[in-house]
């Protein structure tokens, strides 16, 4: 081939101001939004993620891609897992959590914007998601398991929050050094991480 046809996909890393902003609602699902959705799905796949919020892609809009694996289905699945896991990758437009369970669970989380750092986060076990999809369907379903956790993690990004803001003091201490190094590295790289794809 004469040309180098490699495309570069870039995500923002912790410390970038776009990750600390409250994202703007999507007013119209137009070609620009559909194109953004395609690019975000591609980025999720290329970076091997199970979810991606638009601010992580550098766009301060209330949009999320979920690509949670089918085999994460809980033993007793919530209606949301049954309804949504077969539809992955799924693009959510202006998603909201309208209620959260009192029961909570703790599990290690990671984030494409916080590469190679994992720490336990306590969250409600189940949430009720209300959202439009890219196709214009309205979803309202109770979601637990990995899906419920991923939804909460991604929706946090729309509020300018990262899982590192939700750590217990002990967990925060454990990863403080790694986070400092990540931010220092980010300052040199304009808070971008890039992968090339064909
Ligand atoms: Zn994240």
Query: How does the major sheet shape up?
Result: 5 strands, antiparallel
**CATH architecture title:** Alpha-Beta Complex
Molecules bound to protein: zinc ion
How many structurally independent domains? 1
Instruction: State Rg.
Output: 17 Å
What general form does the structure show? Answer: globular
> Counting H and I runs of at least 4 residues, what is the number of helices?
4
Bin the strand percentage: 25-35%
Query: What class do helices, strands and sheet pairing give?
Result: alpha+beta
How far apart the termini lie comes to 12 Å
| Fraction of residues in H or I helices | 25-40%
Structural overview:
- This protein has a single domain (7-189), classed as Peptide deformylase (Peptide Deformylase).
- The protein is built from 4 helices and 9 strands, in the order βαββαβββββααβ.
- The chain has helices at residues 31-46, 79-84, 145-158, 169-188; strands at 7-12, 51-53, 63-66, 90-100, 104-111, 114-124, 127-133, 138-143, 192-197.
- The strands form 3 sheets. It has a 5-stranded antiparallel sheet with strand order 2-3-4-7-8. The chain has a two-stranded antiparallel ribbon with strand order 1-9. It has a two-stranded antiparallel sheet with strand order 5-6.
- A hairpin with a 2-residue loop joins strand 5 and strand 6 (114-124).
- The longest helix is centred in the C-terminal third of the chain and has 20 residues, at 169-188.
- 36% of the residues are buried.
- The mean pLDDT is 96.
- Zinc ion is lined by residues 111, 113, 153, 157.
